[in-house]
């Protein structure tokens, strides 16, 4: 398992921990207070410290690694863009049909936050899937 895969697993694990914390806190403090549990996603920022390159890692990535990282980043970016669009228009659509003419300003940070979370988590999942597919193809040959 290379450094990118380890960091991707850390991101997925930190998100799973944050989501579990959110669902748990949702029962006790409600949706506004429970969003604080997503601060646990910050644990993913420890990846470069935990998985830093050693002197043994002279070649950090080959062409396949660069291609997988590029594809994962593009896929994560596209899903993030879709999230921005959906989280912008869904509240407006719901409120419009209720007869309200404005959207609360409290929604704006959630739109940005959801886009960032989707970008990092989907990039990590796509990265793991692409590496897993490459390993299966190597075993078949």
Summarize the structure.
With 141 residues, this protein is mainly α.
Low-confidence stretches: none
| Secondary-structure content class | mainly alpha
Rg calculated over all Cα atoms: 19 Å
**H/E series:** HHHH
How would you describe the oligomerization state of the chains in this entry? single chain
Report on the biggest sheet: none
In which range does the helix fraction lie? over 70%
Strand content: under 5%
What is the number of beta strands? Answer: 0
Shape: globular
Give the overall average pLDDT. 87
What do these coordinates show?
With 141 residues, this protein is an all-alpha fold. It is built from four helices and no strands. Helix 1 packs antiparallel against helix 4 and helix 3 packs antiparallel against helix 4 (107-140). The longest helix has 35 residues, at 63-97. It is globular. The two termini are 20 Å apart. The mean pLDDT is 87.
């Amino acid at each position: 398992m290379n450094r990118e895969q380890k960091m991707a697993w850390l991101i997925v694990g930190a998100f799973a921990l944050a989501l579990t914390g959110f669902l748990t806190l949702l029962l006790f403090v409600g949706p506004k207070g429970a969003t604080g549990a997503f601060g646990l996603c910050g644990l993913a920022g420890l990846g470069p410290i935990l998985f830093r390159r050693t002197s043994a890692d002279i070649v950090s990535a080959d062409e396949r690694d660069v291609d997988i990282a590029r594809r994962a980043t593009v896929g994560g970016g596209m899903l993030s863009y879709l999230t921005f669009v959906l989280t912008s228009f869904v509240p407006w659509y719901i409120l419009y049909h209720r007869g309200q003419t404005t959207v609360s300003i409290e929604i704006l940070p959630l739109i940005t936050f959801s886009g960032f979370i989707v970008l990092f988590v989907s990039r990590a999942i796509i990265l793991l899937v692409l590496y897993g597919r490459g390993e299966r193809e190597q075993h078949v040959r």
